[in-house]
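Project outcomes to date are best conveyed with an example. Our students and postdoctoral researchers have been running inverse folding experiments weekly, and each run begins with a structure described purely in C-alpha cells. The record below, which covers 74 residues, was selected by the lab manager from last quarter's runs and is presented without edits.
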C-alpha cells in the first residue's frame, strides 16, 4: 500500500490533486481506517483511466464514458 505522497511521486502528479480526486471518488483508492492509501491495482487503474487516444484516432469517438472523462486537464 502506498501513501498519497508515494503514489503522487509514482504517478508524477501533485499530492493535492491525488487527494482531491480521491475525496471526490473520481479515482480508485483505499481507506485503512481514516488513512488514505493506494494499492498497486489502484495506481494501475488511475494510469489506465487517464490514458487518451492519439489525435485522429477513430476508435476514440466510439468509447464509452468513464470516470476519467470528468477530469479537467491543463
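After processing, the design step wrote out the following sequence:
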Amino acid at each position: 500500500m502506498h501513501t498519497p505522497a508515494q503514489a503522487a511521486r509514482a504517478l508524477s502528479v501533485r499530492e493535492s490533486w491525488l487527494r482531491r480526486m480521491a475525496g471526490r471518488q473520481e479515482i480508485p483508492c483505499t481507506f485503512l481506517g481514516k488513512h488514505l492509501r493506494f494499492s498497486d491495482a489502484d495506481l494501475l487503474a488511475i494510469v489506465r483511466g487517464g490514458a487518451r487516444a492519439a489525435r485522429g484516432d477513430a476508435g476514440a469517438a466510439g468509447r464509452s464514458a468513464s470516470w476519467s472523462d470528468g477530469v479537467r486537464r491543463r
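Residues 70-74 have pLDDT under 50 and may be disordered. The chain has three helices and two strands. The training component of this project remains on track.
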